[in-house]
Amino acid sequence: MDLDHARTVAVEAAEAAGALLLEGTRGALGTRAKGEAGDVVTDLDLASEKLLLERILTAYPSHTVIAEESGLVGAAGGEWTWLVDPLDGTNNVAIGLPTYVVGVALCRGGRPLLGVVHDPVSRQTWSAVRGRGSFASSGTSSGLRLAPPYAPSPHGPLLAWTQGYGIARDDATVRRLKTALDLNARRVLQLWAPLLAWAMLARGDIDGIVGYRAGVVDLPAGALLAQEAGIEIRRLDGGPYEECVDGPGDERSFVAAHPLALPGLLSLLE
Fold first, then answer.
1. 234 closest CA partner among 244, 225, 242, 226
2. Could you tell me if 231 and 115 are in contact, meaning their C-beta atoms sit under 8 angstroms apart?
3. pLDDT at 13 over 80
4. Residue 103, CA distances (Å) to 22, 27, 127, 155, 186 in order
5. Which one of 69, 161, 165, 243 has the lowest number of neighbouring Cβ atoms within 10 Å?
6. Residue 150 Ramachandran class (φ > 0 left, ψ -120 to 50 alpha, else beta)
7. What's the whole-model pTM score?
8. Could you give the CA distance from residue 9 to residue 25 in angstroms, rounded to a whole number?
């Protein structure tokens, strides 16, 4: 498997989907309810996903794809699986907030090896291949390696919070974690676009992310991007983070930060 070629396919597909989304947000949105938690899906989600599926399966017809809206597509049980989030930030788009990205990941045996995140608004793309670093590109530059510095603030860390779908509003763990963050962090962002938060962490714009039972589709691309930039991820109890995406939801609860900042962030949550 040529991961460099796979990255090219993923980047080109994500950027094409991003162009479609950017154009689509300028007009009327076809929006409808999704699930019972207040989420929505738009016609743009479906159009972007269709484009991404066509691009990926044309290049890799024997691969499995798990997409946000379509679920399992292509050959099931294969060695290689793509994870596609065609519009991470749908709820933002639905209220006119231009904060959304496209995410694509490629896994082998459940382990992410390639991650791509594209921001249609800024026209920036971030990509990573396991063991080769994370890089940023835009219309004017390419090949900028991501390496966020350790820059602690006396006022506390700037953090992002993310949680998976279907988490009850009165979940005791969520309430405990959010209370700890609100009391100790300088700011806590809830972007409704977790892949964008991962890109911000990989760039050094924020100090950390705390996640609770994060979604399967919108986690691997961003987590790999951050890890390859030098970010460390741990379980909420400080133990090793399980990178395989096939595990139960509890294994997708985590704390992510610069290695030097991680002990303080973990102690903040105790």
1. 242
2. no
3. yes
4. 15, 23, 10, 32, 28
5. 165
6. beta
7. 0.94
8. 24
| Residue corresponding to tokens 């249609």 | 120
Region at 123 (left for phi over 0; alpha for psi -120 to 50; beta for the rest): left
Cα distances (Å, whole numbers) of residue 217 to 26, 83, 102, 220, 236: 26, 5, 11, 7, 20
Residue in the block written with tokens 């699986």: 81
The rounded distance, in Å, linking the Cα atoms of 209 and 38 is: 23
Give the domains, in start order, of the chain with CATH numbers. 3-145 (3.30.540.10), 158-269 (3.40.190.80)
Q: Which amino acid is at 66?
A: I
For 37-49, how does the pLDDT look when each residue is reduced to its tens digit (9 = 90+)?
Answer: 668 899 999 999 9
| Backbone CA torsion sign across 57, 59, 62, 64 | negative
Residue with tokens 């700011």: 187
Asked if 56 and 105 count as a contact pair (C-beta separation under 8 A), the reply is: no
Q: What is the DSSP letter of 239?
A: S
